[in-house]
């Protein structure tokens, strides 16, 4: 155990943790929104993210984007990739909803069944990139790790004075991007009319429809929004890590789901808090021990939090009536 | 439309079974059991087509049968947790791992734990805890783990429990991987002991070649477990679980000690899982942390749900199909995971009540479906 | 314990020479790309075999690299007398789980890629042989490369916490002794290595060794370079493969991969034949797969017709293989002096042989 | 005619709850629906509001066939149900619940006016504006539900047992409010167990028995009908 | 194994036999059974109960009335362990129960129904009641699994046929089996008692509202409570049905239970209760016989309004 390493670089590790956590938070939004409305863990959401990363790769390839382009080109390519990733991820999320969830909803199936079709969909999507597309198109599809050009070159943009902590452009982009998206989404759900509809369906679908809320539209909206956030996460992820892989979503998905629960699943702000906290806890843990213990530490922190706050840090946004 | 007919057909079969005279049911059950014991030798066409070794690259039929039965045991145990008590456990593999690791840690002469004991108590190098003693150890370890995990977390509701259990499964695996000097680390432990038995042809009774003996052993245990589990289902315990599942607060006010019963479900599920793991580790004679990845937990849940959560027969069918089909259709090779995922989605979308649903669930879903259909006024 | 239902062959004794050879490993799943080329290599050896008397087929058994799936396969092979040999297991875990089954069945094994030390050093079985040196040797060779060729005196050692990377890094650490500054671990599936990078920044190493696979090495290396750490990066044979250069991109320029595999000349007949048959350059352990099959075929050429015969032949085999000069010691290992280690440098996305390293034995 | 439901059949799984009933409501009327437990009153309301689809029959509202419309589409046309058991949103505050009532409305100023109107009718709601609705007492929830329904400015307001669980004084009040709303021009269809109150305030009424309409007439007629008196008024 | 045999089909024919479901009580009629002692309960700023005092005497039917939001249901929740009072104590049979877990309180002898029905919707009516009966059963989980606890059966409990009969004679019958049988019998009896035995095997969700209300009562009775609390049992009933319910409440008392009932229907309350406690804004404003309460001007002002003209 090495607490010195942690204490000495606390500022830096915190920044590392926040960067890591920002991506968890964005992906966690998808889990939390779907859960909030449908009381369902969308197991295929990790793959919604994965599709996003491939879309970024695809966009760069089509545009011929590489490292070291001019600033204008970089911005254009990044924005296009963002748009494409958001569209592709949202589309995937919607497709999953249509194929795997809607028919079950129509049949009034219990939640466990959704879990299994979710797992099934996840497997199908993973295999689509790992096997099906490879069989038809060959590389880069397949089971190997693929490089994504670092269109944005990592540079230190400024140093936080006082603690002398260098901040790179990619980090800044990730953190700011995540927070901006969170605020936008939160405002939308809490302030807009459609957002109110989302919350109404979350609490009582039948009554919501009696208030004039179109339930199907709301559910679609939720998947689209969650998917789009996963698309944003995908772009930010590729900017920072430069790779993708057919099963890249698996671990991030589990982490993001953990983050959602940590913050209080169903609660949008909880996703942000949970994501950042999880990221920070993980980085701290890898300093104190090493990365082989991060998951254990993270889960133990989760259990401790849940023991004192059984509905997560910020609690469920949906109140519970008794007797 | 055909679906509706299908599900009714399923129901009727169950009803007819219930209405059949008792002697008929007993005889039929005995026949099924006898057939199960005979399965490894099944060689009469066309039935033999179910064997997995027909294909030149197929795997040994009896070994596959053994694995199927081990997974069936695990699934029946998990069904107590998910199907009966309605608790979503996504870390069941943790208990399975504990069972396997217990027999390895205490029974294998090459395990660090045994070696520590040897040097501590001046025992010979061959000494290890005998297999028979490993059984209570394995059950006790997984049961204790179940209680330790359950006690602080069972108060959590539904999906919070899911993620905590998922974490538990990972913790077990990662700890086993990281604690090199206790568990052998990532390389695992070899020389896991096998059950005692007479020597035949210079080989111990439970050896690596005659897999059907392992299968029979597992089958006996499965039958025992199924028998006990069905006792639970149709008793005050089963009713209490059902009541908790439906409305925990109301159940408490009716005198059902929710926490106690949930903990029991967890403990029972855990020990059955441990038992399955023990069988697996012993047959394999080798355990390593990567055998207990998260995916296996999902697979166990899928077995329970696809067959018909809550119904023991359904769960057995689910475990059978999900283990058997990938082995039987080896020729699909690297397309198997894709086909598997597709099958999961298709089966569940077409038969959300499970392949062999419990009658209660089937009726429930059937009713809801009618309602939902009519509710969807915009066809 | 199996009844022979489908297998048409009545293999076994007599002069009838119809046999099967099994190849067991992860042919599907995430790790398949490390295994398939070696089995292709074996197939190529069989195709090129010139023998009128015998009819040999290669059967590919997929284990997904999972010991639980491998044991039924092993039992099947052991129970079917028409199998006179096995190529595999490809990974150490499945090999550990199955070698006692093959031992009980008397089936000779030649592994093309299982490198765990204990397989031959701790509890050796008679039937097991392998064409690759075990981790201890490899670790020593890597350490030697780091100190002698790179001239490093402060090496930062990282492993992936798994059965492959951890013992390898242990051995590197052991050999390096004081020349190692710090050790860290990563996880399979990890993408963010900020904690490791910050440790590196404070340790200020003059070289980095990574024992792990490509999926993690690529982002790790990228993040190392992003952080401005410009020291040599060396990986074990887990990074050996055409994928490495592609996955790591520009950041991987100059990274070194150590492999106990001699370079296959791009214009050699093997490379050309392989390319023709499988439409690509020979991948990981293709030559070892080829060699393993060749040894079995030589046994049949020699008149071996039973498992015992084949086993005896393999035990005593001596000959020149594609990958190295082949002979097995009592434990089933290729003696150290016959093995060559090569450092391959990633240049423009391809691994080009740089230098040969011999560990002191 | 504002609303006409013809030969409606509604099933719950194998159970048939409505056996082809016909209900009509004219503009400006107060119509009540009475019947024993399980007679199908709630089912009728569900069918009218679109929460459940019909297996057979049709619903015409304001001259338009709405049989195939979803509940939210019907609401936009002015057909509003205040459901049995209140169906408030337990996790939203009182204000947010009322807001939901005005979900489809865009006329901000008029909405604000309606807030005042609702708070005028139920001062308790104004006191509890910020309370989470799930923790309101039974009667308070009922007030909230009615208030919320009013927020959508219905053409036809359907109330399913509005007096259920209310204290005697409040029951009076609720019926007074119903009369008041009706006088302000909203057509009302009300299901009630409190048959005496309901009948005395209705222009017309239907009596439902096991999924069939067995009687219909003006409120006064039914009040005097001996069989109705015996079965629903508790007077022999 | 069949999920539900048609038990009690023949039993249905004979008329209800109250002795079979009457409970044994351990004290004298008229003594204090439950005492609510200066109980205050706050939710954040809302004071739902404010220093409330009253007691319930064995054998009586006590009414609890008050305007909406007065704190009646909250009072039930405090008595049954759903909420813990902020201040004050609740004693049942001289035992402090405030803060005790709901299931423990049930074992002590208090049962309740819910204002918004909370049955186990997917269980049959009979099973719902059996869950209640189980509260009094002793077999543990291990007992169910291994059935080692054997009881020498009486003649009536022995199976009729040969082998099983001798087996039961030698080894006894497991307590679990006997309890299970007794539970079924009693549950059926209770269903008949509340008048819904004809749909005993129907899933609770599908029962009409009135049946569900009565099923809740049967389920509560099954736990053999000394005190049974009914929260608005007549809500949604028409006058004729209310009349029936009044009879049922009286008969429940005759079985030996003490009854506490919350109800807004004054006709029912005045007609059936022995004593009434009135709450308003969490405070007790009156207590007394129905006649006294009905005349009390405070109650009229706060609750009844001008003389009730409802039927
Ligand atoms: N969701 C449902 N599933 C199955 N059956 C139902 C459902 N809802 C109602 N029923 C059945 O339909 C019939 C009519 O019920 P409905 O609720 O319309 O009666 P109601 O007249 O409103 O009675 P109440 O006065 O009790 O509210 C009853 O027999 C009831 O059991
Ligand atoms: N969990 C809670 N949080 C906050 N306030 C609560 C909670 N539960 C009840 N209350 C408040 O306490 C008061 C008493 O509620 P209670 O449910 O006891 O009323 P009641 O007398 O049963 O009324 P009704 O006759 O309408 O059912 C109400 O004002 C209610 O809003
Ligand atoms: Mg109704
Ligand atoms: Mg109340």
From TrEMBL, chain A:
It comes from the Bacteria. Keywords: Amino-acid transport, Cell inner membrane, Cell membrane, Membrane, Transmembrane, Transmembrane helix, Transport. InterPro entries: ABC_transp_permease (IPR001851), BCAA_transport_permease (IPR052157). It is found in: Cell membrane. The chain crosses the membrane at residues 23-41, 48-67, 73-96, 108-126, 172-189, 218-240, 296-315. It is a multi-pass membrane protein. Belongs to the binding-protein-dependent transport system permease family. LivHM subfamily. This is Branched-chain amino acid ABC transporter permease. It comes from Nocardioides pini.
TrEMBL record, chain B:
The chain crosses the membrane at residues 26-49, 61-82, 89-107, 127-151, 214-232, 263-280, 292-323, 335-351. Keywords: Cell membrane, Membrane, Transmembrane, Transmembrane helix. Signal peptide: none annotated. It is found in: Cell membrane. InterPro entries: ABC_transp_permease, LivM-like. It is a multi-pass membrane protein. This is Branched-chain amino acid ABC transporter permease. It comes from Nocardioides pini.
From TrEMBL, chain E:
SUPFAM superfamilies: P-loop containing nucleoside triphosphate hydrolases. Residues 34-306 form the ABC transporter domain. GO terms for molecular function: ATP binding. InterPro entries: AAA+_ATPase (IPR003593), ABC_AA/LPS_Transport (IPR051120), ABC_transporter-like_ATP-bd (IPR003439), BCA_ABC_TP_C (IPR032823), P-loop_NTPase (IPR027417). Signal peptide: none annotated. It comes from the Bacteria. It holds the Pfam family ABC_tran. Keywords: ATP-binding, Nucleotide-binding, Transport. This is ABC transporter ATP-binding protein. It comes from Nocardioides pini.
């Amino acid at each position: 155990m090495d607490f010195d390493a942690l204490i000495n670089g606390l500022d830096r590790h915190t920044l590392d943790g926040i960067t890591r956590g920002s991506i968890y938070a964005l992906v966690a939004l998808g889990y939390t929104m779907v859960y909030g409305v449908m009381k369902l863990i969308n197991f295929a959401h990790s793959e919604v993210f994965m599709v996003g990363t491939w879309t970024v790769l695809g966009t760069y390839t089509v545009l011929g984007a590489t490292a070291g382009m001019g600033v204008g080109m970089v911005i254009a390519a990044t924005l296009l990739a963002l748009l494409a990733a958001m569209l592709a991820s949202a589309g995937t999320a919607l497709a999953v909803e249509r194929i795997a969830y809607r028919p079950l909803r129509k049949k009034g199936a219990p939640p466990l069944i959704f879990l299994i079709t979710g797992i099934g969909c996840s497997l199908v999507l993973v295999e689509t990139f790992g096997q099906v597309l490879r069989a038809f198109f060959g590389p880069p599809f397949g089971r190997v790790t693929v490089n994504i050009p670092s269109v944005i070159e990592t540079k230190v943009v400024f140093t936080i004075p006082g603690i002398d902590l260098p901040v790179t452009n990619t980090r800044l982009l990730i953190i700011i991007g995540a927070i901006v998206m969170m605020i936008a989404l939160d405002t939308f759900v809490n302030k807009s009319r459609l957002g109110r509809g989302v919350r109404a369906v979350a609490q009582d679908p039948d009554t919501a429809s009696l208030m004039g809320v179109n339930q199907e539209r709301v559910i679609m909206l939720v998947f689209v929004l969650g998917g789009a956030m996963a698309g944003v996460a995908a772009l930010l992820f590729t900017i920072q890590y430069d790779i993708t892989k057919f099963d890249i979503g698996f671990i991030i998905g589990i982490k993001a789901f953990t983050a959602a629960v940590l913050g209080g699943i169903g609660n949008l702000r909880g996703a942000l808090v949970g994501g950042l906290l999880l990221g920070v806890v993980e980085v701290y843990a890898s300093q104190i021990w090493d990365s082989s213990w991060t998951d254990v530490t993270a889960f133990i922190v989760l259990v401790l939090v849940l023991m004192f706050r059984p509905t997560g840090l910020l609690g469920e946004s949906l109140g519970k009536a008794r007797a | 439309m055909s679906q509706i007919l299908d599900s009714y057909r399923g129901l009727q079969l169950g009803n007819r079974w219930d209405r059949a005279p008792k002697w008929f049911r007993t005889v039929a059950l005995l026949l099924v059991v006898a057939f199960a014991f005979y399965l490894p030798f099944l060689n009469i066409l066309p039935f033999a087509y179910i064997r997995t070794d027909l294909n030149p690259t197929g795997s040994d039929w009896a070994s596959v049968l053994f694995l199927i039965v081990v997974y069936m045991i695990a699934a029946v145990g998990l069904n107590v947790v998910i199907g009966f008590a309605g608790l979503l456990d996504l870390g069941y593999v943790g208990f399975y791992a504990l069972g396997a690791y217990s027999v390895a840690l205490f029974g294998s002469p090459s395990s660090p734990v045994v070696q520590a004991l040897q040097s501590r108590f001046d025992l010979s190098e061959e000494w290890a805890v005998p297999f028979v003693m490993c059984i209570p150890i394995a059950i006790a370890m997984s049961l204790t783990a179940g209680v330790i995990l359950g006690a602080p977390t069972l108060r959590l509701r539904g999906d919070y429990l899911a993620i905590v259990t998922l974490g538990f499964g990972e913790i077990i695996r990662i700890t086993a991987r990281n604690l090199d000097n206790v568990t052998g680390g990532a390389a695992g432990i070899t020389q896991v002991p096998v059950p005692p038995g007479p020597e035949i042809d210079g080989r111990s009774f439970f050896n690596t070649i005659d897999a059907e003996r392992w299968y029979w052993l597992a089958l006996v245990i499965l039958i025992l477990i199924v028998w006990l589990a069905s006792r639970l289902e149709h008793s005050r315990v089963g009713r209490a679980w059902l009541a908790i599942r439906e409305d925990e607060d109301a159940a408490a006010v009716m005198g059902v000690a929710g926490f106690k019963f949930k903990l029991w479900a967890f403990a029972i599920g855990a020990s059955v899982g441990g038992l399955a793991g023990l069988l697996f580790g012993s047959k394999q004679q080798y355990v390593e942390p990567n055998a207990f990845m998260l995916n296996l937990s999902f697979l166990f849940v899928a077995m329970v749900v696809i067959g018909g959560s809550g119904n023991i027969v359904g769960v057995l069918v689910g475990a059978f199909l999900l283990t058997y089909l990938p082995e039987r259709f080896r020729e699909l090779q690297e397309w198997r995971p894709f086909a598997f995922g597709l099958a999961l989605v298709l089966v569940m979308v077409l038969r959300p009540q499970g392949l062999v649903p419990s009658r209660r669930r089937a009726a429930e879903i059937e009713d809801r479906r009618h309602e939902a259909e009519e509710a969807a006024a915009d066809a | 314990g199996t009844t022979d239902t489908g297998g048409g062959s009545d293999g076994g004794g007599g002069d009838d020479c119809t046999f099967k050879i099994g190849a067991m490993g992860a042919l599907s799943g995430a790790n398949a790309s490390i295994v398939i080329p070696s089995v292709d290599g074996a197939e190529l050896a069989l195709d090129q075999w010139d023998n009128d008397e015998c009819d040999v087929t290669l059967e590919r058994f997929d284990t997904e690299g999972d010991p639980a799936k491998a044991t039924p396969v092993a039992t099947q092979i052991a129970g079917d007398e028409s199998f006179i040999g096995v190529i595999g297991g490809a990974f150490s875990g499945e090999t550990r789980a199955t070698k006692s089954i093959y031992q009980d069945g008397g089936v000779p094994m030649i592994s093309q890629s299982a490198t765990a030390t204990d397989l031959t050093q701790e509890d050796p079985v008679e039937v097991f042989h392998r064409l690759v040196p075990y981790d201890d040797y490899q670790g020593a060779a890597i350490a030697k490369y780091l100190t002698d060729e790179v001239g490093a005196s402060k090496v930062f050692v990282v492993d992936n916490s798994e059965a492959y990377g951890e013992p390898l890094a242990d051995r590197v650490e052991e050999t390096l002794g004081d020349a190692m500054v710090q050790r860290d671990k990563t996880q399979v599936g990890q993408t963010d290595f900020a904690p490791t990078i910050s440790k590196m920044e404070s340790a200020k190493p003059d070289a980095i060794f990574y024992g792990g696979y490509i999926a993690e090495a690529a982002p790790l290396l990228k993040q190392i370079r992003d952080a401005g750490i410009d020291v040599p990066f060396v990986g074990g044979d887990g990074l050996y493969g055409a994928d490495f250069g592609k996955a790591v991109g520009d950041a991987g320029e100059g990274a070194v991969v150590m492999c106990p595999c001699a370079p296959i000349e791009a214009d050699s007949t093997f490379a050309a034949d392989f390319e023709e048959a499988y439409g690509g350059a020979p991948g990981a352990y293709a030559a070892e797969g080829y060699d393993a099959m060749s040894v079995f075929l030589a046994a049949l050429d020699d008149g071996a017709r039973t498992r015992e015969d084949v086993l005896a032949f393999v035990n005593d085999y001596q000959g020149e293989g594609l990958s190295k000069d082949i002979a097995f010691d009592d434990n089933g290992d290729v003696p150290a002096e016959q093995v060559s280690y090569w450092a391959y440098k990633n240049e423009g996305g391809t691994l080009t042989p740089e230098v040969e390293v011999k560990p002191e034995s | 005619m504002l609303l006409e439901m013809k030969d409606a059949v509604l099933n719950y799984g194998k159970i048939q709850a409505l056996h082809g009933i016909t209900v009509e409501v004219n503009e400006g009327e107060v119509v009540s629906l009475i019947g024993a437990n399980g007679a199908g009153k709630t089912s009728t309301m569900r069918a009218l509001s679109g929460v459940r689809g019909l297996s057979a029959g049709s619903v015409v509202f304001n001259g338009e066939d709405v049989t195939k419309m979803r509940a939210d589409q019907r609401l936009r046309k002015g057909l509003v149900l205040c459901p049995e058991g209140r169906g408030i949103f337990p996790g939203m505050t009182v204000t947010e619940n009322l807001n939901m009532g005005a979900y489809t409305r865009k006329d901000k100023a008029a909405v604000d006016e309606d807030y005042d109107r609702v708070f005028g009718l139920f001062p308790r709601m104004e006191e509890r504006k910020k309370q989470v609705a799930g923790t309101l007492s039974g009667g308070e929830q009922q007030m909230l539900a009615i208030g919320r329904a009013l927020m959508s400015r219905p053409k036809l307001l359907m109330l399913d047992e509005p007096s259920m669980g209310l204290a005697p004084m409040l029951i009076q009040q609720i019926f007074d409010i119903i009369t008041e709303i009706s006088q302000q021009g909203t057509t009302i269809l009300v299901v009630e167990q409190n048959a005496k109150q309901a009948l005395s305030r209705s222009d017309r009424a239907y009596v439902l028995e096991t999924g069939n309409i067995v009687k219909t007439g003006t409120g006064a007629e039914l009040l005097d009908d001996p069989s109705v008196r015996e079965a629903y008024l508790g007077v022999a | 194994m069949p999920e539900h045999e048609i038990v009690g089909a023949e039993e249905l024919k004979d008329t209800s036999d109250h002795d079979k479901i009457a409970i044994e009580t351990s004290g004298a009629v008229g003594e204090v059974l439950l005492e609510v002692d200066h109980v205050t309960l706050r939710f954040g700023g809302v004071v739902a109960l404010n220093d409330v005092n009253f007691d319930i005497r064995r054998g009586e039917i006590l009414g609890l009335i008050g305007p909406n939001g007065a704190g009646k249901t909250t009072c039930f929740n405090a008595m049954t362990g759903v909420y813990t009072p902020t201040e004050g104590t609740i004693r049942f049979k001289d035992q402090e129960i405030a803060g005790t877990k709901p299931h423990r309180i049930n074992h002590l002898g208090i049962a309740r129904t819910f204002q918004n029905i909370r049955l186990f919707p997917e269980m049959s009516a009979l099973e719902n009641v059996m869950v209640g009966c189980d509260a009094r059963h002793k077999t543990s989980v291990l007992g169910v699994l291994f059935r080692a606890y054997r009881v020498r059966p009486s003649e009536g409990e022995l199976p009729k046929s040969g082998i099983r009969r001798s087996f039961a004679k030698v080894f006894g019958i497991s307590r679990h089996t006997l309890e299970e049988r007794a539970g079924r019998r009693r549950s059926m009896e209770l269903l008949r008692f509340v008048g819904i035995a004809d749909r005993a095997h129907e899933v609770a969700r599908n029962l009409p509202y009135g049946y569900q209300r009565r099923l809740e009562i049967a389920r509560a009775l099954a736990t053999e409570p000394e005190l049974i609390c009914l929260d608005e049992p007549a809500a949604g009933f028409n006058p004729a049905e209310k009349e029936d319910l009044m009879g049922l409440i009286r008969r429940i008392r005759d079985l030996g239970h003490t009854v506490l009932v919350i109800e807004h229907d004054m006709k029912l309350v005045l007609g059936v209760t022995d004593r009434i406690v009135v709450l308003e804004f969490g405070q007790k404003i009156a207590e007394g016989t129905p006649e006294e309460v009905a005349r009390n001007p405070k109650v009229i002002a706060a609750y009844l309004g001008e003389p009730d003209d409802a039927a």
